[in-house]
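Predict fold of Zinc finger CGNR domain-containing protein; 183 aa.
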Amino acid sequence: MLFSHDTELTLRAAGVLINSDRVDGEQLGDLPALDEYLDSFGWTGRRDHDAAELESVHRLRARLGAIWETAGDEVRAVGQVNALLADTRAAPWLTRHPEMPEWHLHLASIHDPLWQRMGAEMAMALADLIRSGELRRLKVCAAPDCDAVLIDLSRNRSGKFCDTGNCGNRQHVAAYRERRSNR
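Predicted 3D structure, encoded as tokens:
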């Protein structure tokens, strides 16, 4: 494990959130889809279940996507992460739950709006990545027909393709066929 469990989980959740409108159209277009996403990553706390909440999560998704897109420019990425931390008024404290007995950080009150809690957690996970000198693990899929993002958690940072559309396999098959046709 490269990072703490909650950091890796939150980075994965951020990637899935960003990709929810980059692959196969809008995947978080309604409140049941948002609930399914939230439940799949164990998000707790207040849920308003209204259109404003869904729209605020869509705005957060766009901000996170911009951070991923600028990961090659550390100064810009840091500025965006700092802005997100400030906008969410992140205030860390240690906690644990029966379903997650390891100590981990919460960064916003369970009573704060959903986007604020998600944004604070995701910004802090990105801050962990930056502090450890691993910002280059944030990548956009290398397949020419894919805009999905990925968090490369491989040991040697060799991941290039997302896992949303079988991109790696498609690219390897295409390269194999190209080599075979040149014989």
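The beta strands are 93-97, 100-106, 138-140, 149-151.
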